[in-house]
Amino acid sequence: MLLSMTGYGRATTAFDHKTITIEVRSLNSKFTDIRFKMPSNYKEKEAILRKIISERAERGKLDVSLEVKSLQGDDEFGLNVPLFKRYHRALAELVDELKIPNGDLLQAILRIPNVVAAAEDSIDEKEWEAVEQTLHQAMDNFNDFRRAEGEAMEEDLRMRIRNIQEPLKMINPFEKGRITRLRNRLKQNLEQFLGKENIDENRFEQEVLFYLEKIDITEEKVRLEQHCTFFIEQLDLKTTLKGRKLSFISQEMGREINTLGAKAYSSDIQRLVVQMKDELEKIKEQVANSV
Fold it and tell me: Residue 178's pLDDT is what?
């Protein structure tokens, strides 16, 4: 089972004339990074919230929004009078000095952060239980979303691996042809520079064997096929934390494909290598978005 690193989950609970809403969004990240947006009186519970989310989200950059609203419209707000006065004095002096229109100075100051804030009441124990329940429901929805995305990713990854294995098998028929072309080209060059009568056939065969060893791609083909098989085996595992391992495997696949291209000496094999590289890049994009 594969989990997408991007996801969204939302849950709402009605409690004691209040509505508790929690939203969880995530993006790609190598590590777990959680940012909160919540009422100031819930800051004391941040460590508990962070622990719950970390255990259930596993990995990703997460934005968590916690909102508690009164159903009766009686949310209490406080005015920071000293801060309001300081802003008013500073702005009034600026207006007089620059001779600019006064405008609605009152409304402008009220929109400044921290001038008006929700009253910081202590959290009732039952309200906190309702918040925890809402968070777990939001995380359930969040992980359901990521599983659905992960299933689509996994299906695409399996297809991409097949799209690498198929051209890999198509390389074999072109190998004999490139050996013949290499032999003919070497012999033609020697005849051109040394003359046909001056060629030592035994030495020539030794040189051919030397070059054939240099361009032999048997090991690369075997290792690439093994990496493809290992990749599928990892997808088949029931665990969810597999993104990093799949990333490592795809890097190893890339090394073998690049070496195949470097040793190809065949336009037909190069064409197949380009196809495999294209599929591998799509695999890397998908893996980067998996947990």
Answer: 76
